[in-house]
Structure formats: structure tokens, C-alpha cells
Amino acid sequence: MLRKLIACSFSVMCLGVGVACLAAPAPGETYPTPEDAAADPDFALQGEYISDNIGLQVVALGKGEFEAVMFRGGLPGGGFTGKKEDRTVTRLEGGGIEELTENMKKVHRKSDTLGAEPPKGAVVLFDGSEASLKEHWQKGAKMTADGLLMQGVTSIDTFGDFTAHVEFRLPFMPEARGQARGNSGLYLQGRYEIQMLDSFGLEGKDNECGGIYKAAPPAVNMCLPPLSWQTYDVEFTAARFDDDGNKVKNARVTVRHNGVVIHDDLEIPGPTPGGPLSGKENAEPGPIFLQNHGNPVRYRNIWVVAH
Fold first, then answer.
1. pLDDT tens by residue, 16-73
2. Which of 107, 162, 262, 277 has a 20 to 30 A CA-CA distance from 47?
3. What are the contacts of 83-89 at 24+ separation with CB within 8 A?
4. Which residues lie across from 57 on neighbouring strands?
């Protein structure tokens, strides 16, 4: 069965829909927690599997349909060669997934920076407490009853050059597609966005998880299954301006997604639309902004070290 799937390449249907989907309402159910998602039997089947030198990502599409994305060499970030020809995709129903994964081991990968402790001198923007919510986030910021930060928040603190750690969890929205599927974003200085999106199983484009929109796709798509806790670890160098306000150097960023480098000292040509300071690229420091795109994305353990 594995060899048969590797030998064939199937077209990816709707998962990679682009920006045109932004205004479309997400169909189907939205599950913000693993406990909620347990009501959908497809949630138990979706996820990552391994066998010998093969990695498999099973993406739930709703109503018993799945995409099976197979990688020669292992999972992304865990042996996959990165070559297009070593990635194959097919559509299957629930019974086909169970047959395909019968001799494979399901794995639950975790970022090696998950739960990273803030170093000395760090500004702890959110630690699950009401105090951190009120002290570090602008009016309107909310948290869940179990101590998770909700999307659509802007930090009171502003930063120039910095190191940042953010943990985030994307909802399970099996019938949604493209930009309607667990969308948010981490805006550096309120200007430059690192996409947050349920891009599990996708190729990894600039408008998918880890991408810098219209600037650069991630080197590898390290997006874990929805409702997994994931991490961004960011080294950011702000743009430089002369005394007359003219930009002389672009901003630069290194990003680790779930511990894997997806952007290495990347030059960012300009701001990403949608941020509170997207139209104001200048020498002034800016906030951390977590975008609200109408999906229940959750965050925890956010800290920043200013340089």
C-alpha cells in the first residue's frame, strides 16, 4: 500500500486556496480545544505517522474525508528530503486512512522549545495570569477561563531589536480551507507578519504557516496538526533609518518554528498589511500584535528580550 502511494502523485484540491478566501465564512464546525474536537471522529485519525523511512501526515477535511500526505525520508523536519518528488498527496475516506496507517506508528511531536523559561531580563508579556494581561496588553485583551490569551491583542510594550518566544494553538476546523482555516499572525513591531495558519500537510507558501506574506515562504512547513501547541522563536533586527527618516537597511529576522529554522537572517523588504503600524515603517519601536482573523487561536508563554 505504501509503495503504491509513493509511486503516484495526486493533485492537492482545495487546501491551498489563497487570499481570495479571506472573506468567505468558514464552513462546518470550529473546535477550539482538544476536548471539543473529540466529538468529531475524524480528529482521532488526523495527525502524523511514521514507518521505516516514510512519514505521513493525515489531514482531516471533514465528513470522513482526508488528505494523506506522504514524505519519503521521514516527516518534515525529521528526515524528509524537501524534494517535491518525494512528497505525494491523495484523497481518502476514513476506512482508507485506517488501512493505510495500520502498520504505522502515530507520533505526537513537540517543539523542543515548548515551555521555554524566560531568561533574566525578559519582559514576560503573558504567563496565564490576569496581572500579565492587564500590565502588558492594550484595552480589550481577553483570556480564556483556563488562562490562555485570545487572538486580537496588541502589547503595551514596544520593541526595537529583540528575541521573542511565542506559543500558539490553532483550532480544528476540518471543513475550512486556505485562509479560513485557523488564521492569525504574529506581527513584529506591529509591522511585519509571520503567518499563523492551519497549514498542516500543505507545501509551505508565503501565505501559509511560517510564511512572511509576499516576502518569503518557510524553508520547510513545520506546522503540526491543529490543536497541537506550537512555538515561534524569533530573532528580530529592526530596519535602520538615517537622520532624515530615510530607510537605509531593511528589517531582518530569523525564525524557528517548532525548533526548526524556517527563515535564516531573512531580509524583510517592507511591512505586511493588516498590522497596527503597517503604514508606519520608521525608526520607532513597535508592539507585538496577535492578529484576529475570526478564528479561536490561543496563546501562552509569551516573552521578549529587548536588545
1. 333 333 445 677 999 999 999 999 999 999 999 999 999 999 999 999 999 999 999 9
2. 262
3. 85/9, 87/203, 88/5, 88/6, 88/8, 88/9, 88/10, 89/9, 89/10, 89/11, 89/12, 89/201
4. 48, 69
Task: Decide which of 49, 77, 107 is a domain's last residue.
Answer: 107
Burial 218-243 (b: 16+ CB within 10 A, else e): bbbbbbbbbbbbbbbbbbbbbbeeee
C-alpha closest to that of 222 among 252, 197, 188:
197
Which residues fall within 8 angstroms of residue 198, CB to CB, at 6 or more apart?
Answer: 170, 171, 173, 176, 181, 182, 183, 209, 223, 226
Query: Which amino acid, 124?
Result: V
CA neighbor of 285 nearest in space, from 256, 307, 270, 265? 307
Closest by CA to 14, choosing from 101, 91, 92, 93, is 91
pLDDT in tens, 166-222: 999 999 999 999 999 999 999 999 999 999 999 999 999 999 999 998 899 999 999
Where in the sequence is the domain holding 280, given as residue range(s)? 123-306
Q: 218 with 280, same domain? A: yes
Q: In this structure, are 232 and 270 located in the same domain?
A: yes
Instruction: Determine how many CB atoms are found less than 10 A away from the CB of residue 158.
Output: 16
Q: How many residues does the chain have?
A: 307
Q: How many angstroms separate the CA atoms of 237 and 275, rounded?
A: 18
Q: Which of 107, 136, 158 is the last residue of a domain?
A: 107
Q: Which pLDDT belongs to residue 50? A: 98
Is pLDDT at 4 greater than 70 in this prediction?
no
Interatomic CA distance for residues 171 and 37, integer angstroms: 9
> HSE of 146 in the Cβ direction (CA atoms, 13 Å)?
6
